Amino acid sequence: MSDKHSKHKSKYTADRMIPGAFEGETVTRRRFMTGSAHTAGAIAAGAFTLPALGFAIGPIFKKTPHTWQTVGVASQFSEDNYMPVVVTLTPGIGEAGTSTAYVRKFNPKIDTDAADRDSKYIAISSRCAHLGCPVRWVDAAERFICPCHGGVYDLLGRRVGGPPVRPLDRFYTRVEGENVQIGPRFSVNSELHRFSPRDPGEPLDGIGQYLYPSRPTERKL
Amino acid sequence: MPKLPKLPAPPLPAALQAPPPRPGEGNGKAGPLDLGKEAGITVVDWVDERTSLSSAGRWLLFRKVPKGTNWFYTLGSATMFAFLSQAVTGVFLAMYYRPDPAGGAYESIRHVTNEVFLGQFVRGMHKWGSSVMVILIFLHMGRTFFFGAYKYPRELNWVIGVVLLILTMVMSFTGYLLPFDQRAYWATIVGVNINGTGPLIGPYLSDFLRGGGEFGATTLSRFYAIHMLLIPGLLAALIGFHLYLVAKLGTTAPPWSKAKERQELLEAEV
What CATH architecture is A69-218? Predict the structure, then answer.
């Protein structure tokens, strides 16, 4: 035994008379075996838990392709009244994947917001900004009215009553020849400034846009 | 006429009497009838000799209960039986249900309700039983609260009970979508969006529930898997632990029953 080893006595084996132990051992065999068994168990459990977990939360980070769908021809829409059209949000699951959008022509008298100037059509989502029920355009009242909790919106989709936290969402629109097409959805705050799409119930004024982050895969449109 | 005392029957002649058992023979050899009579005991003994389960059973079932125990103390087991009813009816409903959002789910529920023998009854038990379970769990919680039964050393059982309440709520929420009619669909849209209103993690939570940004093809099967695989397993395991703690710690006396005054000790102190 060298001087070096006798100076640094192991706290695990010193004076414990463990058979086979030698001076300078830093860990007992029992401790080493226990640790190995636990590590092997943890690796085995992790090997099926982590992929399963990733599998379950994967859809959050899935990128959904943006599609444009034709909803009518130019002559069908007017400048001062909405026409309901059916848009497919999720293909392949029938009615459950569809939603209604309200479309009208761009009207320079009421659509004064700078961002709207480029679009020839205004398409408003029927998804209530409170909790997602379908709002209905009531022509006589010139209001969008939600049947669930009494949300009311004006002609531009801005909240005028009830619990909604922001105006109604909108869709991008474009004209392909004669066809009017509807594209991805976007959200607006109470000044009609555009934001990446949010779910209902998530305010966008003030600190709201930071408290309710948009989907990472849809952040840049 | 006065009743006459019954006379004893005359003894049989010795030749017709069965011979008395010889010392060491007992009552003779056990016939097949005797074996049949004792089959239950034999099986239980065989299992018990190898598992010692009977002592566990006695420990669980034959407990001392405090004076004043009343009908309110049955709300917990009532909730458990509501859960068992949900589990059994749910297993059999799963034999007919198809989690297909393109019309198959609604069609399979319609088939169960209108065409399957006793289908409406079993589905009705599951549907109404879910409300019964929620009501019972709240009554049980109220009993625990007003009787002070959540206090030391039973705090952990209260915590487990709250987790069980939340899991029951998750069961109600996920089960509500499965009939896939208009009410189910819009209630789920609203419910998922309520989850989304939680700051910072809310949007991710609603995406997790929907399995994507929009209500999609996987949403229904996801809710179905949560409803019939994930949560029931957790519920059963936690109910087991909840019961273990009840058996281990015992139940509390009602708050109105007074502890016995210790007279002798008081006199000794004077």
Answer: 3-layer Sandwich (2.102)
